[in-house]
Amino acid sequence: MKSGSFMSEKSAKIFVAGHRGLVGSAIVRKLHDQGFTHLVLRTHSELDLTSQSDVESFFATEKPVYVILAAAKVGGIHANNTYPADFIGVNLQIQTNVIHSAYKHGVKKLLFLGSSCIYPKFAPQPIPESALLTGPLEPTNEWYAIAKIAGIKMCQAYRLQHQWDAISGMPTNLYGQNDNFHPENSHVLPALMRRFHEAKANNADEVVVWGSGSPLREFLHVDDLADACVFLMDQYSGFEHVNVGSGVEVTIKELAELVKEVVGFKGKLVWDCTKPDGTPRKLMDNSKLASLGWTPKISLKDGLSQTYEWYLENVVQKKQ
Amino acid sequence: MAETIGSEVSSMSDKSAKIFVAGHRGLVGSAIVRKLQEQGFTNLVLRTHAELDLTRQADVESFFAHEKPVYVILAAAKVGGIHANNTYPADFIGVNLQIQTNVIHSAYEHGVKKLLFLGSSCIYPKFAPQPIPESALLTASLEPTNEWYAIAKIAGIKTCQAYRIQHGWDAISGMPTNLYGPNDNFHPENSHVLPALMRRFHEAKVNGAEEVVVWGTGSPLREFLHVDDLADACVFLLDRYSGLEHVNIGSGQEVTIKELAELVKEVVGFEGKLGWDITKPDGTPRKLMDSSKLASLGWTPKVSLRDGLRQTYDWYLKNVCSQ
């Protein structure tokens, strides 16, 4: 497999939109690791991506060679349900502005990032790329999902009409540095980490987790995602979007036990089986990315240890 | 989620309320303007593409800030047939998303009381059940030849729903079936089946041709709605419907392509033969919208296919072929 031009252009100007988020910050770290020297980064107050004219001026002035679109309005079930107009409207506006301006101002290649919620609620498991738009979406995040699907389709349409190199990557559940550990609206992995940590700090007897622990989930460390993004920028110029997962499934029970061990909580782990389990299984089919030659490198145990260290230094310390 | 439908009090009782009809020069927009004027609405705000480029966010914002329309009918879109969709997919998805996002957001931000968003039956899955109910949306894959336009229109429906849920704002969506009537596209290469047949029979009549040959067997079933009926339904929905779900707007009147061709031949007055080239493809066997939701709200179409074709042919004679 011959190397594409991305990796050979270490001084090419790269715009990473959304560089402060979980995904964007990991991509910036990875690009720095790999020796890319010319990153253009703008905070939301420096560049509002929902403003068409600001985005146009930015591209006209900066003329980046590559763009990684990791900026989005994101959130969990509660946020999607409460702010559906923001979730669909802001994301559509960001995507339409950035993709179009990037094309118009000579960007050589753009990578658009989405998430596994683009797939139908009852997609076959593992979920292949071909499952897109084959059935109804999960209602709790359909606003965000529709926006992301429109983004994938925009990239495809620009490739078809203009022969412009735009690709899309759809990651599975992510975790790692800069994740959201908020007690009320974080995802399951950071929520467990926080709860076990606080139970340890408070010498609690036990931590109770909802459900039976039997649902299966897949997790990918965000540094692995960033590695896959650089890989795709370098090696992939296909029409279809690409799933980015670890292929590593665990039950919620296995996850909880691992987090408990990594955090070092010595009390009991108890399951409240009266509470709902959620989807029985959610796993992406990553065979397409694997066949391109990419594999993840960070085991769940190592990733959790690294994330817990970060949590201690950046979340716990900061509060003190 | 509770739906508010069929209110007794008409929300369009103020005939001097300012109404912005975006896309007023197209097949749909021009029919809506005609209908509003007929119904006594006196304050229509209309802008050509040169006067207001709806893909420019700042221009759309200024327009709404200055004009502050009370009602908005969003009938502006980049439209076209199979060939155009296939050749310009980026324009079909990008321009339509930009128009929609700009207009819906600015309308909300500047106090518009109600917005009607228009799409088309191509939002539905390729193999949707026939007749196609509103609930078929997003249940299976789209027809690839117009998926770019379809995705944009689906995003528009969802944007309206999202603004209703988050802001309690009155945005509704109407999805018409195949339309025909004045201001349609009669271009020999990229018009739809009905205007294409009308043009071909007319030219055959004028040229004294012996025969017109139509592709296929003539057996596929299609539904047609005269655009004046669509406009009537739009005014009806603006007045009576404030629900979350989009509404199909169809005539419920199916004809075979053969019946359609025979009717057009008769209306045009072509005396020669109608032949069928059965070596050519038929296309989808059946395409009919389920319009029972709209019917249950109390609306029915008024223009029969025969009358509609006559009226359209009159318009064609005066406006297209005399040029």
From TrEMBL, chain A:
Catalytic activity reported = GDP-beta-L-fucose + NADP(+) = GDP-4-dehydro-alpha-D-rhamnose + NADPH + H(+)
One short Pfam family name for this protein?
Epimerase
> Domain NAD-dependent epimerase/dehydratase: where?
14-245
Keyword Oxidoreductase attributed: yes
Q: Which GO terms describe its molecular function?
A: GDP-L-fucose synthase activity; isomerase activity
Alphabetically list the UniProt keywords: Isomerase, Multifunctional enzyme, NADP, Oxidoreductase
Q: What is its EC number?
A: 1.1.1.271
- CDD domains this protein is in? GDP_FS_SDR_e
**Is NADP included in the keywords of this UniProt record?**
yes
Enzyme kind, highest EC tier = oxidoreductase
The pathway this protein participates in, as annotated, is:
Nucleotide-sugar biosynthesis; GDP-L-fucose biosynthesis via de novo pathway; GDP-L-fucose from GDP-alpha-D-mannose: step 2/2
Q: Which family does it belong to?
A: Belongs to the NAD(P)-dependent epimerase/dehydratase family. Fucose synthase subfamily.
Name by which UniProt lists this protein: GDP-L-fucose synthase
The scientific name of the source species is Arabidopsis arenosa
The beginning of the lineage is: Eukaryota, Viridiplantae, Streptophyta, Embryophyta, Tracheophyta
UniProtKB/TrEMBL annotation, chain B:
GO MF term list: GDP-L-fucose synthase activity; isomerase activity
Q: Which domain of life is it from?
A: Eukaryota
CDD domains annotated for this entry? Answer: GDP_FS_SDR_e
Which HAMAP family does the annotation name?
GDP_fucose_synth
Q: Which reaction does it catalyse?
A: GDP-beta-L-fucose + NADP(+) = GDP-4-dehydro-alpha-D-rhamnose + NADPH + H(+)
Domain called NAD-dependent epimerase/dehydratase: residue spans: 19-250
Q: Which UniProt keywords apply?
A: Isomerase, Multifunctional enzyme, NADP, Oxidoreductase
Q: Which organism is it from?
A: Arabidopsis arenosa
Catalytic activity, EC: 1.1.1.271
Keyword check for NADP, yes or no: yes
**Pathway involvement of the protein, from the record:** Nucleotide-sugar biosynthesis; GDP-L-fucose biosynthesis via de novo pathway; GDP-L-fucose from GDP-alpha-D-mannose: step 2/2
One Pfam family recorded for the sequence: Epimerase
- Protein family (similarity comment): Belongs to the NAD(P)-dependent epimerase/dehydratase family. Fucose synthase subfamily.
Name the UniProt record assigns to this protein: GDP-L-fucose synthase
